Amino acid sequence: MLRSCAMRLRTLGATPARRPEATRRLFSSEEVVCKDYALPNPSWTKDLRLLFDQFMKKCEDGSWKRLPSYRQNPPQALQEFQTHFVDSKFKKEEQMSKAQQFTRSLEEGLGFEYAMFYNKAEKRIVCLFQGGLHLQGMPGFVHGGAIATIIDITAGMCAFSEGIVMTANLNIDYKKPIPLLSVVVVNSQLQKIEGRKLFVSCTIQSTDEKTLHTQATGKKLPLPICQYP
Amino acid sequence: MLRSCAMRLRTLGATPARRPEATRRLFSSEEVVCKDYALPNPSWTKDLRLLFDQFMKKCEDGSWKRLPSYRQNPPQALQEFQTHFVDSKFKKEEQMSKAQQFTRSLEEGLGFEYAMFYNKAEKRIVCLFQGGLHLQGMPGFVHGGAIATIIDITAGMCAFSEGIVMTANLNIDYKKPIPLLSVVVVNSQLQKIEGRKLFVSCTIQSTDEKTLHTQATGKKLPLPICQYP
After folding, report:
1. Could you say which of B2, B133, B167 has the minimum Cβ distance to residue A95?
2. pTM for the whole structure
3. Cys-Cys link to A154, which of A127, A145, B31, B183 (CB 3.0-4.6 A)?
């Protein structure tokens, strides 16, 4: 998620898009329309739309920013990244161009439906999440791996405010299962920085805050430490 | 993953299917062909096929068993499960019938390609895993959430040998990124049982065992403890 984070944070200053798609240059020889998936679509439940609208209101005074989200990374970002992480098994540019962000690879409404909001002063990210029918683990509930995924990207965005980071540790306590198609609030906070290590906390609660579904901690490391050998 | 586990373990005694599809009764009024996804398909790399064949050889003396894997749970299992976890937000049977197992919801080759093998005497599961192009996190590498997912299902199957369990904790150390389309070996071991708690360990290594990509521990609880309120 590293580069998509970079893209998101670069666009933090942008006003919320009124149309769901924005054109960005992805390849030097062609223009590719790149959809921002962190905007309402027909699969969003009333609960998710309501919360989204509430946070968009909070964005009006500049204290919160909505973070856009895309399926693919621009080739320039891939090249930059590969200077740090060179792996002989993945050098074919053709393959690379077909890769998609895990959290945006399922069809609209079936997978991860979410929108993130960032509060710079509080070093906090709130992610509004609705788990689609193809995220099933136990019958009727979101898979533990899908929960880990939404925690990883939310905590990752939170730590990213301090620079480019990677996840070194993720410790998750699963308290209560999350029903499919329900809306929950993922809240991540940068807790402390020790040397080059960043420590973040994360909770997943029901929208009324009465149910704690999951709590987690994460340790993040800046890129140079985690270089591929 | 609870019910799919149940299905898998019930079928442990079955001989490896020579054809990739087997018919199972899913609905009382109709027959539905349910595909076993834990068998080779054209997206599997040579490395994955080779390892799969090696483990199939090990199955011949009965010490190892291949575990099948499906996209959907039979309605009977859902009903059984709902007697434990009743949630008003997810009672519509029509919705439930459209839900799919998270790890099998992406198209062939693009998501989680894996096959699991179980050694009862050693209380151990080996999962051969190839991460497809739609599992991307950092450019060119498998997403940390996808890694957490494959660990969760492998450790879950390992603990399941002791009964129906749910994940209570997952603690993951990410050591080295896993390149997309590479094949890795996920190894999970039941470590100890304390009261009703089951403790499992899990590692992800390269096929030559020279690179430790990830290591994790998991705590599992039998179903009655984790009842939805």
Report:
1. B133
2. 0.84
3. A127
